[in-house]
Amino acid sequence: MNIQSCVEVRNEWDIVKARQSGRNIAKELGFGTVDQARITTAISELARNIYLYAGSGEVAIERVENGGKLGLKIEASDSGPGIKDIRKVMEDGFTTSGGLGAGLPGVKRLMDEFTIDSKENEGTIITSIKWLR
Amino acid sequence: MRIPILKLNQYLLITIQVDLDDKTALQFQEDLLEKIHETGAKGVVIDLTSVDMIDSFIAKVLGDVVRMSNLMGAKVVLTGIQPAVAITLIDLGIMMKNVPTALDLEQGLEKLQQELGG
């Protein structure tokens, strides 16, 4: 079965849409309630970052497999301004939007794998995976 | 979408039963402060039993509304935070410091009664 979804993020409601579809897929893959909450929260943070900093972009969620391990992959991509200083955005409490500054370092802690690929003035792709235990 | 705010004697009761989007969360913040002003309520319980996810934005809105209500002279207790939500918040690094909480609505009301002296 092909489990995947792609949500375009253009406004606040798309953030809700993205996390709902993430929760459905996580449930379908067999993640427990706590991991479902972790995945949904991670998607919410990533989708909000797209909305806040890039204006629009998309969140793709899909099932991944690696050597018998099953997981859920989130790919959040945008063609926004990019991240100037990746080390800085990974610091707890760093924010340019008046938020809590918990977003990206938080997502990294919620998920198992986390990579940022960003080029200034070209965009950002954040990929993150949670493995089913 | 508006979140209903119920009045019970000197208390306001809110139970959040929708998947909160940013606008609804901010609207709720305003509505609650207006309602405190209008009713002169001394205590507020916000019940989160049905909330299955709190991200950093919603956490900020909730923490802020507690502090804003305090400024106006009303005490707020958050109740019913689910195990998965508590785990996720701490993973995110959000400690909700200085935000009074209780296990459920009943204990939340008890906490308010104690703090307000009957």
Automatic annotation (TrEMBL), chain A:
Domain of life according to the entry: Bacteria
Transmembrane regions listed in the UniProt entry: none
Pfam families: HATPase_c
Alphabetical list of InterPro entries matching this protein: HATPase_C_sf, HATPase_dom
UniProt keyword terms in alphabetical order: Kinase, Serine/threonine-protein kinase, Transferase
Key word Hydrolase present: no
Domain Histidine kinase/HSP90-like ATPase: 34-133
Protein known as: Serine/threonine protein kinase
Any GO molecular function: protein serine/threonine kinase activity
UniProtKB/TrEMBL annotation, chain B:
Name recorded for this polypeptide: RsbT antagonist protein RsbS
Top-rank taxon: Bacteria
PANTHER family noted in UniProt: RSBT ANTAGONIST PROTEIN RSBS, RSBT ANTAGONIST PROTEIN RSBS-RELATED
SUPFAM superfamilies: SpoIIaa-like
Domain STAS: 1-112
Gene source species: Guptibacillus hwajinpoensis
Pfam family, one: STAS
Signal peptide per UniProt: none
